[in-house]
Amino acid sequence: MKTIIYAHPDKNSFCNSILQKVIQKLNDKNYDYKIINLIEEKFNPVFSYEDHLVYKKKEVLKDDQVLKYQKILKESEELIFIFPIYWFQTPAIVKGFLDRVFTEDFAFGQSWLDNIKKVTFITTAALETKEEIANDFGNPIDVNLFGVLKYCGINNNFWLHFGGIGHGEKDKGFYDNILKEVYKKI
Ligand SMILES: Cc1cc2nc3c(=O)[nH]c(=O)nc-3n(C[C@H](O)[C@H](O)[C@H](O)COP(=O)(O)O)c2cc1C
């Protein structure tokens, strides 16, 4: 199964157009997939006192939503993340997803996520190029997120970035070409 992890608050966003294109491709190919829509599903990204106690005592988590997401991850052979770049990195809700769902002895330690054979991050940003995102303040995906995934046993990771997605000032052809590329590469 493939799992899409999506984090954008607006149905009119370009990220949502990318999501729809990915869904279209997965349907065309008859792939089995699930969508985790972090904002719509009101995922709480805050690593709480309860989370901390569980972490310290190595106990089993009691949060139903985290447990549900962990089950989905264990059933997945591929993950596709879709989110906008916020402040040269992932939105907080995606970071919180890693903090709270990729727990010890689930994602690393006694148990790995080596069932996941491929991860693709699809990101958008206002700045035009990937280099502008990756160089000025560190590299949010190739270094940081790929590093996290490798720590969890996932080594086949890709970053598909689309810049110049600000306030809809580009012509239709610009957006259509991106969506064609997404369809081809996913
Ligand atoms: C809180 C916040 C932080 C942002 N930080 C950046 C940034 O660091 N670099 C950048 O190029 N764009 C930044 N942006 C712009 C978004 O990445 C851009 O609007 C989005 O990718 C456009 O895609 P959308 O139509 O799906 O929203 C930021 C936007 C917000 C709301």
UniProtKB/TrEMBL annotation:
One of its GO terms (molecular function) is NAD(P)H dehydrogenase (quinone) activity. Keywords: Oxidoreductase. Transmembrane segments: none annotated. GO terms for cellular component: cytosol. InterPro entries: Flavodoxin_fold, Flavoprotein-like_sf, NAD(P)H_dehydrogenase_qn. Residues 4-173 form the Flavodoxin-like fold domain. Belongs to the NAD(P)H dehydrogenase (quinone) family. This is NAD(P)H dehydrogenase. It comes from Spiroplasma tabanidicola.
